[in-house]
Amino acid sequence: MPESTYHEHFRFLEARERLSFDEIERVACVAASFGVTKLRLTGGEPLLRPQLPELIARLAAIPGIEDVALTTNGVLLERHAAALKQAGLHRITVSLDSLDPAIFARMSGGRAQLTPVLESIASAQALGFAGGVKLNTVVQRGVNDEGVLDLLDYFRNTGVVVRFIEYMDVGNRNGWEREDVVTSRDLLTRIVTRWPLEPLSPHYRGEVAKRYRYRDGAGEIGFISSVSEPFCGDCSRARLSSEGQIYTCLFATKGTDLRRILREEDDAALQKALAQVWRDRTDRYSEERAERRADKARGKIEMHYIGG
Ligand SMILES: C[S@@+](CC[C@H](N)C(=O)[O-])C[C@H]1O[C@@H](n2cnc3c(N)ncnc32)[C@H](O)[C@@H]1O
Description:
This protein is α/β, with parallel strands linked by helices. It has a single domain (about 15-305), classed as TIM Barrel. The protein has eleven helices and eleven strands. The chain has helices at about 20-35, 50-60, 75-85, 100-105, 115-125, 150-155, 185-190, 260-265, 265-280, 285-290, 305; strands spanning about 40, 65-70, 90-95, 135-140, 160-165, 195-200, 210-215, 220-225, 240, 245, 255. The protein has an eight-stranded mixed sheet. The protein starts with 20 loop residues before the first helix and ends with a helix. The chain binds S-adenosylmethionine. The site of S-adenosylmethionine (SAM) has 18 residues, from strand 2, strand 4 and helix 11.
């Protein structure tokens, strides 16, 4: 979130403009009635939302919901991890791009410190979340790619699964250029020269990460090749923003307003709207990008608004 826009006087959403826990739960119940089994809380930074464990407990209790996950920058995780686990959170993903304090500081806009994030990862791992603790690492050429092996070395034999996500052109502000992307293939080549790996079979159809294990038994890592091998055809995700817009693609230019329906209509109307959004979806931005047909100028929703 660029400081130039989100300065001291920026008017963030008022509480009444955001969905309440009751409203989020209603959307989740309708989604579960359609067969959704997994929910992920992301952002923005989900740990900034007061009483988050209460929301997690409500979501985890919805019939049909088998998996509630959280993606966080880890800054506030240590103080909340036990309450999140107790509330029924199944798994945690922490975003960590570098173990070099200077690079980490630069990539987090000078606002976060590395040591507390590493401590929070260790405490979350010690709590024993059923679905484990994963790291999301986005590698940008010339920014943090030199530190990839150090990062893996640190987490080998800890049970924490590092997953590399190819750097994407989400939103309009990150100045993305194709040359900045370090592909999974490139990373894999660098990694196997140090630690031989073998592929693991997917847990389920459409699993976004290609998983590998170290031959020496030091654990598992994954690669999400969203730029070099787009998986739009297998994508089954929808994203609900804090103010109730639903999006069917990370690269969407517009969403559908569920907040009005939540506030003015009943669950049958909500069900109808959600079904229609899903039936009508045509997004395949990453494939279009791979085919060099993506419109670079299209006004995409920013990542901090739509989640990762
Ligand atoms: C937008 S963040 C939101 C959740 C939380 N604040 C966090 O930092 O994890 C979700 C995920 O998106 C990833 N991400 C952000 N920008 C990205 C980009 N340009 N390409 C690929 N992944 C990106 C982050 O690394 C993070 O794991």
